[in-house]
Structure formats: C-alpha cells, structure tokens
Amino acid sequence: MSPLPSRPAGLARPVPDADELLVARARRQAILLAAALVREPLDRKVHQDLRTFVENDSEPALRAWESLLSRTPEELRDRIRTVLLRHTSRRAS
Predict the structure, then answer these.
(1) Which of 14, 34, 37, 47 could form a disulfide with 83 if both were Cys (CB 3.0 to 4.6 A apart)?
(2) Within 13 Å of residue 79, how many CA atoms lie on the same side as its CB?
(3) How far apart (Å, rounded) are the C-alpha atoms in residues 47 and 85?
(4) How far apart are CA 83 and CA 51, in angstroms?
C-alpha cells in the first residue's frame, strides 16, 4: 500500500502509527470484502480476493490489533495526548 500523501505543515493530520494504520486499512478492506461477498456470494473474483486477504493481510493486521489492545493505560494516554495536541495545533493555525 502506498504511504499517505503529505500535507503542508499547518494542515497536518494526526499521523497514525504503524499499528493503527495497518488495523484501519485491514478493517476497511475486510468490510469491503464482506460487502462484496453479500452482493455477489458466488463471484470467483470476490472469493479469490477474500482468500488473498486471509492468506496475506489478515495475520499482520491481527498482530497489529493485538498490539493496540495490549497498550498500557499510560501508552494510551500518551497517544491520545499526541493526537489531541496535533489536532489543537492544526485548528489554531
């Protein structure tokens, strides 16, 4: 997957860390695949895409999800603080 496009400094969004980004992308992909499976349950391309996702992308995403879940309360507070500070500084500019 390609990196997120860069923005001018004053418009920078809070940057997701690697685990957050991997989980968000995998979640989005899984939802799209699930919807495709509901729309076209017997479509070979949908089945192949689903197999590819499970074989290649799901395990790293599951490990990233487990990593997010294992964060300590202090790590979560630090992450929230970082996101809020970036958001606040963006709104102030």
Answers:
(1) 14
(2) 13
(3) 43
(4) 35
